[in-house]
Amino acid sequence: MVFTLYDIHGPHPVGATTFAIPLDEFTNPDDRIIGEGKVKSNIPGRPNEPALKLEEVAFTAFYPAGVKSDGGKRLRRGLGWIPKPVNGTLKGYAHFSKWSYWIVNCLLHFPASLIKIPVYPNAPLLDPQSVPEFNGASWPLVLFSHGLAGNRLNYSHICARLASEGRVVLAFEHKDGSGPYVQNVSPVPGRPSSSHPPEYKLYLHPEDVLWNTEYDKSKFPLRRNQLRFRRSEIYLGYAHFKKFVESSLESDADVLPHPSLHTVDGPSASSLASPSHSKDRNFWLSWLKSGSKPKVRVERDVALAGHSFGGATVLDILSTPPPLLPSEYEGGKRFSHIPITHAIVLDPWMDPLTSPGPIPYMPEVSSVPGEKGSETPRLLVINSEGFTLWDEHFDRLKEVVKGWNKGPSQSQSLEPPQPETTGSNGFGNAHINQTDDDEDTKPSSHPPISGPYATLITLLRAQHTSFSDFGVLVPFGRLAREGKLFLSTTGDLLSAFLHEEKDAESMDGSGVENERFVEELGKLTQVDLQMEDINLHKPDSETEWKKRIVGEVGDVVLH
Questions:
Q1: d(CA 255, CA 271)
Q2: Which of 43, 95, 301, 389 is 20 to 30 A off residue 206, Cα-Cα?
Q3: Is residue 125 exposed (0-12), middle (13-18) or buried (19+ Cβ within 10 Å)?
Q4: What does the alpha-carbon distance between residue 209 and residue 205 come to, in Å, rounded to a whole number?
Q5: What is the Cα–Cα distance from 179 to 275, expressed in whole angstroms?
Q6: Rounded to whole angstroms, how far apart are CA atoms 30 and 221?
Q7: 373: left (phi over 0), alpha (psi -120 to 50) or beta
Q8: Cα angle vertex 333, ends 328, 338, to 5°?
Q9: Largest Cα–Cα distance of the chain, in whole Å?
């Protein structure tokens, strides 16, 4: 018996392959360590070692797959949702939840092992040149960052949805102690396995880490150092992946032109010239450049997305200069800027971010005003209802969105953004689906927050987990229906936001208006931000009251 997660129905079948990049270039041990925290002696994994040490970058790529390219034989469909080893991942969830591992393992091991993602593991990448409607373009690239206690597979539905429509999505496995369980260094296919058990890291609670200096004892020291760690992971992952897909393979080559990258439980990258390794060779060739341009568009129009702490990661990257290269490179040189044009933030956790801010970091890429790459990335923020009702947190998020909409002219200012009472919304008016017949509909009393560079939306009745696969793990009943609705709505909005046929300049030249996004938003029932009290009275207990936004499941507020 197998339980397959909520399926996607895009124009392309989806493949999924996990890649890993050992960080051999970090020969100086000091380059690997972020912060001064050390894991306490009673914590499994690596006690008394640095809490944040860069050893490997890993991500699962979701992509349009060539499912009939393996000698005409259709490939197997279904990827385990729980990363291997399952026992290790469950041990991590037990440590995160502070439950007994034996209880977690007994309750979850069997059902967790049955959950499958509806994708083709390790299928070749579909050549975009073979897709007539794609007009010879390369697949756009999306980088995705998971939240606390998440991993590279927990957002498989959103990642697969975007991939099915013609994008390559790299879902990072952050090895910063924010995931339940990670191996510090992944085994390499085709190489003898070590006789020693793999070293691993479990989820790090703030109290699991010791700090040596008063500086590191500031508020959220672990989370802020994890943001630095994640920033390095994403820049390193992007740089290596870019170098990989921009390479080509000679006809008699036995190894990859970029040998540091390998798969995890996938095709081997050794002895590629051997006839017995033709299947592996075909896989690698599907990713490498075979014509004048790469099959994945890495040099421009990159999208960055994340949920919760991953949302904080997105905002941190957008508002911070690239990290420094390892010390053996030229002194003081930084990584090249990632050409991000669109950013998606789902239920961002704002607390670990510096205040005031974050604000868009604008590198001096050109002295020519308006040249490609010098514009503020377009930002889409989708909140669950609970995060919008978190007043202090939501107030800060609103200020960030307002500040983002000031555009490049004020992007370097460190002053907190001031409230705005007027302005146009680059993604349409606050009530897109309102008609002339809506005589009784009153305009919102709240001044608009969304604008030409950033849009803020609340999805009514959505929970914090509704943007991940956790929202559809229950296969039946109300939770299943609502979980599918939230994922479907989120996927529709993200797809429209990233749509390539978009972005005509607005009338005043201050931003862009994505017509498809406006149309998609117009299909949803939009409500004003008005509150109501609900009675949570239970038998034999006092009446409890809770506030919620007036509206129905799946309605949205465009702030």
A1: 6
A2: 389
A3: buried
A4: 7
A5: 39
A6: 19
A7: left
A8: 115
A9: 78
Structure tokens at 127: 């050549």
| Element containing residue 91 per DSSP (H, E) | helix 86-97
Residues 146, 58: contact at Cβ < 8 Å?
no
Contact (Cβ atoms closer than 8 angstroms) between residue 31 and residue 18: no
b/e burial code for range 204-233 (CB count within 10 A of at least 16 → b)? beeebbebeeeebeeeebbbbbbbbbbbbb
Count of C-beta atoms within a 10 Å radius of residue 333: 11
The whole-number average pLDDT for the span 116-144 is 91
Tokens of 510: 């201050």
CA-based R_g, the chain, Å:
24
140/438: higher pLDDT: 140
What is the per-residue pLDDT across 8-38, written as a single tens digit (0 to 9) for each?
A: 888 999 999 999 999 876 667 777 889 888 9
**Is it true that the peptide bond before 356 is cis, omega within 30 degrees of 0?**
yes
Tell me which range, 275-279, 440-444, 532-536, is most confidently predicted by mean pLDDT: 532-536
Place of tokens 């709505």: 489
HSE toward the beta carbon, residue 239, CA cutoff 13 A: 17
3-state helix, strand, coil in the chain (%, to 5): 30, 20, 55
- To which H or E segment does residue 15 belong? strand 14-22
